Amino acid sequence: METPQWLVKPFDELSTQNLYDILHLRAKVFVVEQDCPYLDVDHYDQKSVHLMGVADNRVVCYCRLFDARNYFETACIGRVVIDPEYRNKKWGHLLMTEAIRELYRLFGVQRIEISAQCYLEQFYASHGFVTISEMYLEDNIPHVRMRLDPKSS
């Protein structure tokens, strides 16, 4: 099975090309595809570790990893995104598995939370996350908060 090459870097170690690829992918999906005009560059990039899946010399899947209290009270995963051209490869599952593994490696075994778009609730549940909130709107898109306890993974 073809898989992306994984890169894990804090903000200050990202190359200019890494940063361009990340911002391009996030804008392509979150702003254009989801028709959600919002300011994606939110000053949390500097507080996160960036997990990138690289294929064809560009970032095609990505998420941000946060230690506890850098975004939520717990460790968390955010800005989970797969390039539309690569979604048929099921790399979203590989990305989540790698993200969970990296959070444990980087910050120790701890609870992980995510703010999940509602239509992806079952996807995250397949990785052991459980829903812990009612639906709420974030940037006018329905979300739920989900949690993964260390014993669940």
UniProtKB/TrEMBL annotation:
Example of a GO MF term: acyltransferase activity, transferring groups other than amino-acyl groups
Ranges of residues in domain N-acetyltransferase: 9-151
Annotated keywords: Transferase
Keyword Iron-sulfur found: no
Classification via PROSITE patterns: GNAT (PS51186)
One Pfam family in the UniProt entry: Acetyltransf_10
Keyword Transferase found: yes
Superkingdom in the source lineage: Bacteria
InterPro entries documented for this protein: Acyl_CoA_acyltransferase, GNAT_dom
Protein name as annotated: GNAT family N-acetyltransferase
Organism: Flavobacterium aurantiibacter
